[in-house]
Design a protein that fits this description.
By secondary structure, the protein is α/β, with parallel strands linked by helices. It contains 14 helices and 14 strands. Helix 2 (68-78) links the parallel strand 1 (56-61) and strand 2.
Amino acid sequence: MRRIPKRSRVTVVALAAVTATLALVASGCGGGGGGGGGSTSSGAGTTTTIGKGEGSLNVVEWPYYTYKSFAHPFEQQTGCIIHRKDAGTSQEMFALMHANGGGGGGQYDLVSASGDASLRLIDAGDVQPIDINQIPSWKEFLPVFKSPPHNTVDGKHYGVSVQWGPNTLLYNTQKVKPAPTGWSAIYGPQYKGKLTVPNNPIQIADAALYLMQTKPSLGIKDPYELTKSQLTAATQLLINQKPQLKRYWNYAADEITSFKNGDVWMGAGWPYQTLQLQGDKQPVKEVVPLPTTGWADTWMLAAKAPHPNCAYKWMQYVTTPKVEAQQAIVFGETPVNPLACPYMDKIQKGSCAAYHLNEPASYYNKIKFWKTPVPQCGWQKSNDCMDYNAWVQAWAQVTG
């Protein structure tokens, strides 16, 4: 499950207005697409030389993740023509990459995986380590996104971070008074029938993080690394929450509609929903109660990538500040490269702050970014934690 894979026709049309502005920026946009001779060799412990582009780049992506407004200059610069396979959920991404013998099946080069899929792809052998030194902008990244646990294992980088966002608490300012200050607001009965949360197994981590603060006796150290008893406790909290909810939302557009028609007054969301609603003059605000969870995406290189040179060229290009800014505005998310901030504000005034890119380092340290639950408990060096399949089963128990 993911964030904004479903856009209404109205939203797509609205993007055209943004694209007109982006085109002005794109015309002066450089970034990592240059040629260079040699051949490409990748894998753990190897140094990669980026050769001439093969002419094609096949990606599994969240829709609009290679949107033409910022991807077309890349194609012109490199000759790498992008062929897109859109995926609506993390499970669909994993299935596409794991099919036909895995590793992208010799068909796909890159996948824009979220943290709830990236470790599954690594563990399955569907993606390969990259030579991070070939991504010049990586040195500019916010520290938390250079070697995050959702895409870096044993010091090996299985891709390059690209965009992220915090999970926020969105509320109707006319109906919710006083303003909420913490996540307890969505677990209590005060706004029964007027609450909404994502329909996603990774939502269990939000409950676990809440229990870390309110029930330390459970011994939860990492909201994504839960023992059986800890998973049971988080599941029970969510079962108790269900009667308070109006609905679970599947797509950002669903939550936006629920706020617009008055069905819900408060819910877990992302900055994208807040800005869309505020743009429509809806009486909403958001708070980011810290600590919170958050999502982060990674461009990951398929183990059997047929066009690795073009794949590297895209990773170089898409992480440059100008292009990061363009993608952020189109998709409604936040760059991992803080140098994108002034470009964001040129495209859309105030967007850098609105998407939380100008926050201090302490802010990022309090966001627990999505990562795939695996049996290995990093905090106690054992295999006593519950894997993603167990989380899926627990979520079915919550929503069933």
